[in-house]
């Protein structure tokens, strides 16, 4: 072992230390945050499917289910999205009082501190349901339960901080927000110029050591109404009051917004969404050191704390909202396509409509599958950092596609705004999810594979840590162990990828999963191809791969597809292999396989080392990219899931916010049920070439009762197709002013006439 280390490994070690790019503190802390999970299995090139299938599905407790059936239903009934975003520009006061009283802001806070103590899955289910009624309400509820003071206090706060602040956050006495984004630094938090200088000052009548803070933050959700601000800043100790180090690094602190020097700005209007969001500033705000989250010992650890908390929050909030949006789009668009006729037939019969409708259906199936699987990890105490990045990126991106498709199928119905438009505000809200927590461009190009390649790879992080070890001998020994394990793993992966690619995965390991078994074999094949290509890219490019963003993005796309397709297979298995859902499964797999093959082809076409690229093509893609996507049969069957009342439709779109009112969604649901119920009657009339139901009754084709059913369905469809219109003065202050002037002169004239 020492001979190998000293004669073979040592030169490689010296070379690698010389070419290893420097890693910033923020990069290292991001890599160390959170956990690896199923992503690590996918990176091995030989995933253990039995491990995936043994994962306990996320379930609600009786208490959590009662909360959904009670307070959540009651909240949804209180929400009128049109009036919230068009008239009030805010949630009404009775809603604010209700969410505080029922502890919606304290769902994740343990019961010992007065919170509800709910699981991540319960948090996800609550956000998902509210999202289908009101985006503003959903965002208001989800922010205090994701990245914010509450979660940071629970994970890193001192006992005194937890006892003081968590009960106040749980019952709504304090409304939290978190200030991270600065005008000078958006996704690049290391460039923030917000500062906290350690100094002595008077606080509440006594001299203490603390921080004098100056900051400028923007895009802060709940900022305009927050009473407790979590703040990220760079801490400095120029006078060495607590140690020898001057630059301490990114630090997190709790700032009551009533302190002198705190300035709460006016509101932003993010994409016409009216959840509370705005800027804030601090000018020479002084707080004691015990306001630092975790106390003095946590000075400079803020970025790692944030990344650890984000590993959980990213996997819940935005994926829940996105899954809700896709399910809502599937249910409404399927119903609308079923009842809307053009050229004498339902538009659902047009293949041009079936294709985007199938995409919406399969997206809804996939996003909820991935949401549930990710929540299962979180419920088990795992905080999957790479997977949370995948979820944020792909949940919001695929929701965007689903909502765009829904808009296309609805046409003018979804374009004309008003109380009866049940889709337009969701469409406007999509860019917010795409942008928040770092734009998806950043996540796709830098984070998913850039972080995943190091964290999820079985040996790469060990090798990097060994290379960075300041003790050269210790580092060499650790590198020798990890490097040769890596070499052995690479040869295994090479032979595995070669065998599976040339046989189309025919002999790859797969569980007995009925009709889905071949899909597992293909995923095993693609996992091996991905692992080999990733290893070769890392070997030939080294640290330069970080700057090859387009290559990194393609690798990230493959890793993401492997995870999302795993989630779809897991859902189909957990739900009892429902035959009626198989078309959605087929669509997801065919589309995902097409993406994987295309990304592999793009990687091989652009890998700088052309000899390695040619070798890899021979091994992993000898016959080229051959998967074409879902067949027309699968498309038709997938679209059909939402075109008739069925158990499959309910499984796809469970527990949406159904409020029995005269709103657009309620009208649509009623019309859909009525149209589905008269299908056989309508067929008899078409066969008799009769359009008027009264004529059909007179000729004995249908009964009077059946004719009245037809009339009721026709009336319901007419109400759905209707769009809103407004008097000019209802929309514009110009017309309101003119109307007021006209009324004034009219009243003046009447008074003169009377006198």
UniProtKB/TrEMBL annotation:
<dbReference type="GO" id="GO:0070991">
    <property type="term" value="F:medium-chain fatty acyl-CoA dehydrogenase activity"/>
</dbReference>
<dbReference type="InterPro" id="IPR013786">
    <property type="entry name" value="AcylCoA_DH/ox_N"/>
</dbReference>
<dbReference type="Pfam" id="PF02771">
    <property type="entry name" value="Acyl-CoA_dh_N"/>
</dbReference>
<dbReference type="InterPro" id="IPR009100">
    <property type="entry name" value="AcylCoA_DH/oxidase_NM_dom_sf"/>
</dbReference>
<dbReference type="InterPro" id="IPR050741">
    <property type="entry name" value="Acyl-CoA_dehydrogenase"/>
</dbReference>
<comment type="pathway">
    <text>Lipid metabolism; fatty acid beta-oxidation.</text>
</comment>
<comment type="similarity">
    <text>Belongs to the acyl-CoA dehydrogenase family.</text>
</comment>
<keyword id="KW-0560">Oxidoreductase</keyword>
<dbReference type="InterPro" id="IPR037069">
    <property type="entry name" value="AcylCoA_DH/ox_N_sf"/>
</dbReference>
<dbReference type="InterPro" id="IPR036250">
    <property type="entry name" value="AcylCo_DH-like_C"/>
</dbReference>
<keyword id="KW-0285">Flavoprotein</keyword>
<dbReference type="Pfam" id="PF09317">
    <property type="entry name" value="ACDH_C"/>
</dbReference>
<dbReference type="GO" id="GO:0004466">
    <property type="term" value="F:long-chain fatty acyl-CoA dehydrogenase activity"/>
</dbReference>
<dbReference type="GO" id="GO:0033539">
    <property type="term" value="P:fatty acid beta-oxidation using acyl-CoA dehydrogenase"/>
</dbReference>
<feature type="domain" description="Acyl-CoA dehydrogenase/oxidase C-terminal">
    <location>
        <begin position="300"/>
        <end position="447"/>
    </location>
</feature>
<protein>
    <recommendedName>
        <fullName>Acyl-coenzyme A dehydrogenase</fullName>
        <ecNumber>1.3.8.7</ecNumber>
        <ecNumber>1.3.8.8</ecNumber>
    </recommendedName>
</protein>
<dbReference type="InterPro" id="IPR015396">
    <property type="entry name" value="FadE_C"/>
</dbReference>
<dbReference type="InterPro" id="IPR009075">
    <property type="entry name" value="AcylCo_DH/oxidase_C"/>
</dbReference>
<dbReference type="GO" id="GO:0005737">
    <property type="term" value="C:cytoplasm"/>
</dbReference>
<dbReference type="GO" id="GO:0050660">
    <property type="term" value="F:flavin adenine dinucleotide binding"/>
</dbReference>
<dbReference type="Pfam" id="PF00441">
    <property type="entry name" value="Acyl-CoA_dh_1"/>
</dbReference>
<feature type="domain" description="Acyl-CoA dehydrogenase C-terminal bacterial-type">
    <location>
        <begin position="454"/>
        <end position="726"/>
    </location>
</feature>
<dbReference type="InterPro" id="IPR046373">
    <property type="entry name" value="Acyl-CoA_Oxase/DH_mid-dom_sf"/>
</dbReference>
<feature type="domain" description="Acyl-CoA dehydrogenase/oxidase N-terminal">
    <location>
        <begin position="78"/>
        <end position="172"/>
    </location>
</feature>
<keyword id="KW-0274">FAD</keyword>
């Amino acid at each position: 072992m020492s001979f190998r280390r000293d004669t073979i490994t040592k030169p490689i070690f010296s070379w690698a230390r010389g070419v290893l790019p420097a890693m910033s503190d923020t990069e290292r802390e991001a890599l160390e945050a959170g956990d690896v999970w199923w992503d690590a299995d996918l990176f091995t090139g030989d995933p253990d499917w039995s491990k995936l299938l043994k994962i306990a599905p996320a379930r609600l407790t009786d208490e959590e289910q009662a909360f959904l059936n009670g307070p959540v239903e009651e909240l949804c009934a209180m929400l009128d999205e049109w009036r919230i975003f068009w008239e009030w520009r805010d949630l009404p006061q009775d809603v604010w009082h209700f969410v505080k009283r029922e502890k919606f802001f304290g769902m994740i806070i343990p019961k010992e501190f007065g919170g509800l103590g709910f699981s991540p899955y319960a948090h996800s289910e609550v956000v998902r349901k509210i999202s289908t009624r009101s985006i503003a309400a959903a965002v208001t509820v989800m922010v205090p339960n994701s990245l914010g003071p509450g979660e940071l206090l629970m994970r890193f706060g001192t006992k005194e901080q937890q006892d003081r602040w968590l009960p106040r956050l749980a019952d709504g006495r304090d409304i939290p927000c978190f200030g991270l984004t600065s005008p000078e630094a958006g996704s690049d938090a290391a460039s923030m110029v917000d500062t906290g200088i350690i100094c002595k000052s008077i606080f509440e009548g006594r001299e203490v050591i603390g921080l004098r803070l100056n900051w400028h933050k923007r895009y802060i959700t709940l900022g305009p109404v927050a009473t407790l601000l979590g703040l990220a800043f760079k801490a400095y100790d120029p006078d060495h009051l607590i140690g020898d180090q001057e630059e301490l690094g990114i630090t997190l602190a709790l700032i009551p917004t009533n302190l002198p020097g705190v300035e709460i700005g006016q509101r932003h209007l993010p994409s016409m969404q009216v959840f509370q969001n705005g800027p804030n500033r601090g000018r020479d705000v002084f707080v004691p050191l015990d306001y630092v989250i975790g106390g003095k010992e946590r000075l400079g650890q803020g970025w790692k704390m944030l990344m650890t908390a984000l590993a959980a929050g990213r996997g819940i909030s935005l994926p829940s909202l996105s899954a809700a949006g896709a399910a809502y789009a599937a249910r409404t668009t399927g119903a609308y396509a079923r009842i809307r006729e053009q050229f004498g037939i339902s538009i659902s019969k047009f293949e041009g409509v079936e294709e985007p409708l199938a995409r919406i259906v399969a997206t809804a199936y996939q996003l909820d599958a991935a949401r549930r699987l990710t929540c299962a990890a979180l419920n088990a105490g795992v905080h999957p950092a790479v997977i949370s990045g995948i979820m944020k990126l792909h949940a919001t991106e695929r929701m965007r596609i689903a909502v765009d498709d829904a808009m296309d199928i609805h046409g003018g119905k979804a374009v004309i705004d008003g109380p009866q438009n049940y889709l337009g505000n969701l469409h406007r809200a999509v860019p917010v999810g795409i942008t928040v927590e770092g734009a998806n461009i950043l996540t796709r190009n830098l984070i998913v594979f850039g972080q995943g390649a190091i964290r999820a790879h079985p040996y790469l992080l060990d090798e990097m840590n060994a290379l960075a070890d300041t003790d050269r001998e210790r580092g060499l020994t650790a590198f020798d162990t990890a490097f040769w394990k890596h070499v052995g793993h690479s040869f295994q992966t090479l032979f595995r990828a070669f065998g599976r690619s040339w046989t189309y995965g025919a002999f790859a390991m797969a569980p007995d999963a009925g009709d889905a078994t071949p899909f597992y074999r293909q995923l095993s094949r693609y996992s091996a191809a991905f692992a080999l290509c990733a290893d070769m890219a890392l070997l030939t490019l080294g640290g330069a791969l970080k700057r090859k963003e387009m290559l990194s993005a393609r690798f990230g796309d493959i890793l993401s597809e492997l995870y999302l397709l795993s989630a779809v297979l897991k859902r189909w298995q957990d739900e009892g292999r429902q035959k009626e859902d198989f078309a959605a499964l087929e669509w997801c797999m065919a589309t995902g396989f097409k993406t994987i093959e295309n990304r592999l082809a793009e990687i091989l076409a652009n890998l700088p080392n052309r000899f390695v690229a040619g070798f890899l093509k021979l091994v992993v893609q000898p016959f080229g990219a051959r998967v074409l996507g879902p067949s027309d049969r699968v498309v038709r069957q997938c679209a059909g899931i939402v075109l008739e009342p069925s158990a499959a439709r309910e499984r796809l779109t469970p527990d949406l916010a159904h409020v029995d009112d005269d709103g657009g969604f309620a009208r649509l649901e009623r019309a859909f049920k009525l149209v589905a119920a008269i299908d056989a009657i309508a067929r008899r009339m078409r066969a008799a070439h009769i359009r008027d139901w009264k004529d059909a009754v007179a000729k004995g084709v249908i009964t009077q009762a059946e004719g009245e059913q037809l009339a009721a369905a026709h009336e319901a469809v007419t109400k759905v197709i209707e769009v809103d219109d407004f008097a000019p003065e209802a929309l514009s202050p110009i017309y309101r002013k003119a109307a007021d002037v006209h009324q004034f002169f009219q009243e003046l004239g009447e008074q003169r006439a009377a006198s």
